[in-house]
Amino acid sequence: MPESNNTVTPTHFIRQKIAADLAAGKYPEGITTRFPPEPNGYLHIGHAKSICLNFGLANEFSGRCFLRFDDTNPDRESPEFVKAIKEDVKWLGFGWSDRLRHASDYFEQLYQWAVELVENGHAYVCDLSAEEIRATRGTLTSPGSNSPYRGRSAEENLELLAQMRAGEFADGSRVLRARIDMASPNLHLRDPALYRIRHQTHHNTGDTWCIYPMYDFTHPLSDAIEGVTHSLCTLEFEDNRALYDWVLEHVSIPSRPYQTEFSRLSLEYTVVSKRLLTTLVSERVVDGWDDPRMPTLSGLRRRGYSPASLRDFCNRIGVTRNQQHVELSVLENCVREDLERTAARAFAVIRPLKLVIDNYPQDQEEFFEAANHPADPSRGSRAVAFCRELYIEHDDFIEDPPRKFFRLSPGREVRLRYAYLVTCTKVIHDEQGNVTQVHCTYDPQSRGGNPADGRKVKGTIHWTSARHSKKAQVRLYEPLFNDSQPRFSSQDDLHDSLNEHSLVTIDDAQIEPSLTEATAGNTFQFERLGYFCVDRDSAPEQMIFNRTVPLRDTWARVKPR
RNA sequence: UGGGGUGUAGCCAAGUGGUAAGGCACCGGAUUUUGAUUCCGGUAUUCCCAGGUUCGAAUCCUGGCACCCCAGCCA
Prior knowledge:
It is a single chain. By secondary structure, the protein is an alpha/beta fold. It is built from 14 helices and 27 strands. The protein is 26% helix and 24% strand. It binds one RNA strand through helix 5, strand 6, helix 7, helix 8 and strand 11.
């Protein structure tokens, strides 16, 4: 399926760098990238940016992209996340064919390189505790001090490292450290830990290991093993680059990758920190990782976002090193644009108001032809039932209308889309004065919505037949947070920052009968309302629709209040 | 007050010494049996600020200012 036709792929500095590298003949075999998620949570919109970048660039330049699980920390990772991540990447539209890897696949090789480091005096086993290491690291403005174990001989270190691997030491009792420079202004170079002891079962390697390599050691070497040419990551790893390069320069590697950083995505009203997302799930603030309010790919999928719309979004926001804070409207525009041409149209009334046509025969019913997609006749049409009693949207009737309101009100005439012109003759109220029903007369000469005399009617509203339509549940979503840039200092303000209207469930919406055949994941445009998607919990007898995004509503901006 | 980065419209973002692309948002107007869509038009005399170089500066130089990241045996 083509991306939206008018989108010109924007250029950006990484694409330019690759093009220049290729032009310079640096990579005769082509380029290689990788997407390296840690399987300790679900993928979110921020990952989508990285996935589109890495897989997208590889496709564009006929290179390769690895899906590599960065699984070096057994206590936070699980197969559940591995499975979900694979599904999400695939769903987004990318494939890795035989290039699926785990950093843990490389543990033995990594260990051999650690040995090489030790042999050459570039790493040592340190017996300091975590607290002691922290205390001797120095501060941002003052240098650290050398570990008393820094001077151990290569032989002794080799012996100790072997014992670490053999499980002879307790968790946290020792660590393998790079021997770099405790006075470096770059904190990452102050003898960083390379291996730590963790007697813990790993989701991929089981109990084979009780020492696990750190990210800064694993990442560059995994890149080198895979022949990654362009290792793309986010800006907060900028300082790590010096260590990335140091590692590659001190062991015998098969290829030399280079790291390039770009800024991470931040989107209005959304938070993507794994800690926070995990909290939302575990405290049941949301329905799970795929709650339609979650910024996860599975949440967006359940909300009704299409992969194409997300790819389009990632293209539009660009890739730079600026601090990026993207407005939600950009994302919303992308789905609307995609769903506008993709989604079938249907009639649904979310807040039903009964409308009775007094001059329409009690027992009569008829069917009108409604286009499935007005802009695309090839998608055909369906017959919608009509009778004396209908439901219209409560918002489409105002007893005392403001200026410029051209929907239904007493004495006014509107078009019932595809059906007839009706004029409001009477309004029924309950004891509290709420409008509970309206009565109209219809113009029999306006079948299909076109009056015989050609008079103009400004308003057209949607409706369902009370006799035929089915009740359905509709879930209306808004951002999870009130603040466009949610920030949390403690867990307590989490609940204060939540938008209490983030989910509004409506149980008595009325839908046209044809909608009953829709299945999970199908998307529709409920005319004049928005785009909706059949929820995975939906069933023919109890349909559930999630609102992906409302239609653009100029009237809402114009109307008073 | 160490090191590493970033400043172009409300939000993204091109621009690489020759006179400020584009998208979103916003504001008009046209078409419309969805107040949708579509279509036209408008929106930075100025690029964080101040100096300097140059015929010419968002682009080069100098000096400021603002914001982001780094002190896990997380990634």
